[in-house]
Write a structure and sequence with these properties.
It contains 1 helix and 4 strands, in the order E-E-E-E-H. By secondary structure, it is low in regular secondary structure.
Length: about 110
């Protein structure tokens, strides 16, 4: 259950399950991964550039050093996800603070 350094480009991955998969360095470029399940996946160093991630699940996933700067519509709970070194974009990065109970951000 491993895909290392694989590239998905302009692919519709909506409702896909990547649960518990080892996906270090995988590139999801300009993909649609709405409601995709990345629960407990190893996504260290993954690149989600330009991808739509509405309602995607990252519970207990490893997003260390992943690049989500130009991804959109994602929410990551920092209490249940490894995020050291993750690269985030706005406004989605504000979701980390919201998950920690900070109010009045939007």
């Amino acid at each position: 259950r491993a895909l290392e350094r694989c590239t998905f480009r302009n692919i519709k991955l909506d409702l896909s399950s990547f649960q518990e998969m080892k996906l270090p360095g995988v590139k999801f470029l300009e993909c649609s991964a709405r409601e995709a399940d990345f629960t407990q996946a190893d996504l260290a160093g993954a690149d989600f550039s330009g991808s739509a991630l509405l309602k995607a699940t990252f519970t207990r996933a490893n997003l260390a050093k992943a690049d989500l700067r130009t991804a959109r519509e994602y929410f990551i709970d920092p209490m249940s996800t490894k995020i050291r070194g993750v690269k985030l974009g706005l406004p989605e990065a504000l979701g980390l603070l919201e998950a920690l109970g900070v109010e009045g951000l939007r």
